[in-house]
Design brief:
Length: 319
């Protein structure tokens, strides 16, 4: 029997986040001919109606209340709870983004349903759905089978295909009842350091303690610029104050799955691997041939990163 799936889509910097397309694609597979509903928040939601249609949503709810223009847990929990009561979905999906990580457990606790976070695989199996997620810092994968009852899953960004399937989408303006807000965000002030959104970057050039200084990140930034990528770091580099903690990849940092991860002067500690080992192609540059990062790298370059990185930049500039 077809399922009713509800996707919480997200926008960022005037664009629909890529993981929302991925979630809509997974939603169609899980729905198995059932209904795909989607919700968007914020003033520019109407601009994304065509995009949502392209990815097969049958119904798009646009929340018509300026108190959800900027994310706050309070306002979103109240709004989504009301939508869940209206839609009565079997499955709720959203990205394992900063908002997803905050909202999903709150909603699951409030509405008393199961939550499975940071999924890397979702497979419908008859009436059941099997979700896989990495555990023990990526050393193992846990499979969870949901048979009945509502389940909420957050999806690791950049991990699923985003496939178009144009559908006629009904657009519904939703007026939530929002009260007793404990938090009101008046303005978001962007940090100047930190660059783009790492969780959705296709190419990441990452530096470790081997980069040696803030200045040492410059060649990495140049390589990232040439490749159209973003710069990240190990905790070693962040602890040494070479860069901001917002760049940290790993168990206690961000989890990324880019197409290409170039690790420069990073030893490959298990806690770092937890954040990047699912990258599609890993290139390691390290002067120590015994560095553990080479065990998971697809391509390894044994050498001084201050010689190798500028050479790569020079070469990529030609192409
Ligand atoms: P190092 O281990 O010092 O490695 C530096 C590397 O640079 C060496 O391999 C060296 O050979 C190489 N090198 C030096 N100079 C050059 C050069 N000129 N050219 C090329 N190579 C060079 N770490 C994380 O990254 N992310 C996390 O989220 C995280 N969470 C943690 C949570 C806990 C609870 C704990 C205990 C630790 C955590 N760590 C985390 C820390 C982790 O254990 C490592 O200490 C850290 O990842 C090491 O960073 P690094 O590889 O940059 O430094």
């Amino acid at each position: 029997m077809g399922k009713r799936v509800f996707v919480l889509a997200e926008t960022k910097d005037g664009k629909l986040r890529h993981v929302s397309y991925e979630a809509l694609t997974v939603a169609r597979q899980v729905a198995q001919g059932g209904e795909v509903n989607c919700v968007l928040f914020g003033p520019s939601s109407v601009d994304f109606t065509d995009e949502i249609s392209k990815y097969g949503a049958n119904k798009l709810y646009i929340v018509n209340d300026n108190r959800v223009d900027i994310y706050t847990t309070d306002a979103y929990v109240q709004t989504v709870s009301q939508l869940v009561n209206e839609i009565e979905p079997d499955v709720i999906l959203m990205g394992h983004t900063a908002i997803g990580k905050d909202l999903a457990p709150r909603l699951a606790a409030r509405l008393k349903f199961g939550l499975i976070s940071d999924c890397t695989e979702v497979v419908p199996d008859g009436d059941n759905i099997v979700f896989s997620r990495p555990i023990y810092a990526g050393k193992a994968f846990q499979k969870r089978r949901f048979r009945k009852g509502l389940v909420f899953a957050t999806l690791r960004p950049n991990n699923f295909e985003a496939l178009e399937k144009p559908t006629k989408t009904e657009v519904v303006l939703f007026e939530p009842t929002i009260k007793d807000l404990r938090t009101i965000v008046k303005e978001i002030v962007k940090k100047t350091a930190g660059g783009g959104d790492l969780s959705e970057a296709k190419i990441i050039v990452s530096g470790g303690r081997g980069v040696k200084s803030t200045e040492g990140f410059k060649p990495l930034q140049e390589l990232a610029d040439v490749l159209g990528g973003a710069v990240a770091a190990s905790r070693g580099a962040c602890d040494a104050e070479f860069c901001d903690y917002s760049l940290q990849i790993g168990q206690t940092g961000k989890v990324v799955t880019p197409d290409l991860y170039i690790a420069c002067g990073i030893s490959g500690a298990i806690q770092h691997l937890a954040g990047m080992s699912n990258s599609k192609v890993i290139v390691a540059i390290n002067k120590d041939p015994e560095a553990p990062i080479f065990e998971i790298a697809d391509y390894g370059i044994v050498g001084d990163l201050f010689e190798v990185v500028p050479l790569l930049t020079k070469d990529f500039k030609k192409t």
